[in-house]
Amino acid sequence: MKKIKLFIWRGIRRDYTDGIGFAAAHTKEEAIEAIRKISEDWEWSSYAGELLTHEPEVHDVPYGGWISGGG
Questions:
Q1: Cα-atom radius of gyration of the chain, to the nearest Å?
Q2: Dist. CA 15–CA 64, nearest whole Å
Q3: What is the span of the domain harbouring residue 51?
Q4: Would you write out the chain's pLDDT as a tens digit for each of its 71 residues?
Q5: DSSP string covering 31-69, please?
Q6: Domain count of the chain?
Q7: Is residue 71 assigned to a domain?
Q8: 41 within some domain
């Protein structure tokens, strides 16, 4: 049985500062699908390509971290 991993895409959905995408899944494809399921149509059509063109960080769980806010 495959282990669940945490997939993190950093530096996507840029506005004034970088955005982040993440999902807990077995595969990269499953992670992308999990993000699609929670996305509004406009979000998915605007940003889905970034998940395909950026390689995610992949971490075994448990995994922890934090990111400071930008201004």
A1: 13
A2: 25
A3: 5-60
A4: 789 999 999 989 887 888 899 999 999 999 999 999 999 999 999 999 999 999 999 999 999 988 887 66
A5: HHHHHHHHS-HHHHHHHHHHHHHSPPEEEESS-------
A6: 1
A7: no
A8: yes
